[in-house]
Amino acid sequence: MPNEKLNDIPQWTGRFYNDGVQHEDMFDKLKEECGVFGVYGHDEAASLSYYGLHALQHRGQESAGICVSDGSEFHYHRGMGLVKEVFTNDIMQNLTGPVAIAHVRYSTAGESRVANAQPLVFKYREGDLAIATNGNILNAPEIRKELEREGSIFQTTSDTEVLAHLIARSRHEDMLQALKEGLKQLVGGFAFLILTKERIIAALDPHGLRPLVMGKLGDAVLFASETCAFDMIGAEYVRDVQPGELIIVDKNGIREERFAQQQRKALCAMEYIYFARPDSDIDQINIHLARKRMGRQLAIEGFVDADVVTGVPDSSISAAIGYAEQTGIPYELGLVKNRYVGRTFIQPSQALREQGVKMKLSAVRKVVEGKRVVMIDDSIVRGTTSLRIVNMLREAGAKEVHVRISSPPFSNPCFYGIDTPSREELIASAKTVEEIRKAINADSLHFLSKEGLQEAIGRMDEGINGGHCMACFDNDYPTKTGDFSKQMISRV
Ligand code: SF4
């Protein structure tokens, strides 16, 4: 991510949208972490994984991989790019076997290169092992240093490899005992899928920070980061994997064990606000409906009279519909996203930028011209995107632009697998709401309260924050962070 300081944010640029900020990504958004998918007991495990990864593509676009076991050996392929770019028909034909794990990656720790693409595949004394993970291991650098001192040689810069080394070096002969011992040493938010030649194992961190669900398709057992992957292949949701739980699936059936007691439940609230797909359910709560409730609650807390409500596509559309329903102000498509801007898009020159070439988002002039517009967005990170969108709406003729954010101010970095800028770069860490309003050039600004967010998600019965991590809003991290967090900040 570019290193843009708050002071560099222009106040009012004249040419509004493209001026002033050199930013490689027009959307100053948080980056999703990763997505995992697993199949046990289906002849077309690789094809199911391929479709499952398609449904999870929003969680990571840097690399994709599938590893299949035919019972005697692994067949795998990993590559940089989107799922459809990494896997061809020829490649898929070689991925034979009834058990598979698969992964899409956005790198939060470790470099972006194919050696770090997952599933990572290892050989150790008990056989072959493949690992796919979503999340972040806070103490991985510490453990890695220790292991290297003792002679381990790492093949990748990925955090995930630490678990493989812990298993390989364990005194336990039994792989499951070695795995449990390894998992116990990890601090952070993680959802693992582990493949051996004859079984698949799912494990979730003791706080349940990252989502992981189990499903079934006929007799086959499935795992995925989100339920939308099950819908894609006509599979049924069975249940969410629980914090500290280990689920083992092999020829003896399904075994549910623990590697740690559940600690304070702290499922990432940003999954509901922004990361997950609207058609997914997490803990049986539908994401679209939760976002709509956030919009309704936002209207109750921060009503402003206006002519139209619009949402920043795609993640804020549901909240905008909720805001419109609650207030009676019509919802309109005031902003349109250009869906076909890919990584190979030729960036416009500065001269074209100055002529107003907009790559990713456009305002619908006929909708906003002369209107008082309520613009709903899910979060403000550095503030640069919000400023651009507000200015774009003004350039398209909006008379007033009122910004409503369907989450509390994002003022602390995440250490659990979400790529966030350092605290200093988060606009809400240093500025008041009024100062942010000025910086983004809005007529008014309101953030959803933490209590309102909790109520909108609708799971109130599990302790602190209703069982959610909200550390990026309230600085109350569910795990110890200590020195780990300093390492993370320097790596972002
Ligand atoms: S700090 Fe924020 S983004 Fe990170 S896990 Fe917690 S709620 Fe999610």
UniProtKB/TrEMBL annotation:
Catalyzed reaction equations: 5-phospho-beta-D-ribosylamine + L-glutamate + diphosphate = 5-phospho-alpha-D-ribose 1-diphosphate + L-glutamine + H2O
Cofactor note: Binds 1 [4Fe-4S] cluster per subunit.
Pfam families tied to this protein: GATase_7 (PF13537), Pribosyltran (PF00156)
Residues that hold [4Fe-4S] cluster according to the record: C268, C414, C469, C472
Domain spans labelled Glutamine amidotransferase type-2: 34-252
Cofactor list: [4Fe-4S] cluster; Mg(2+)
This protein's UniProt keywords: 4Fe-4S, Glutamine amidotransferase, Glycosyltransferase, Iron, Iron-sulfur, Magnesium, Metal-binding, Purine biosynthesis, Transferase
Pathway, per record: Purine metabolism; IMP biosynthesis via de novo pathway; N(1)-(5-phospho-D-ribosyl)glycinamide from 5-phospho-alpha-D-ribose 1-diphosphate: step 1/2
EC number(s) on file: 2.4.2.14
TM stretches of this protein: none
Residues that, per the record, bind Mg(2+): S315, D377, D378
Active site: C34 (nucleophile)
Keyword Ribosomal protein applies: no
Enzyme class (EC, first level): transferase
Annotated GO MF terms: amidophosphoribosyltransferase activity
Its job: Catalyzes the formation of phosphoribosylamine from phosphoribosylpyrophosphate (PRPP) and glutamine.
Entry similarity comment: In the C-terminal section; belongs to the purine/pyrimidine phosphoribosyltransferase family.
Protein's UniProt name: Amidophosphoribosyltransferase
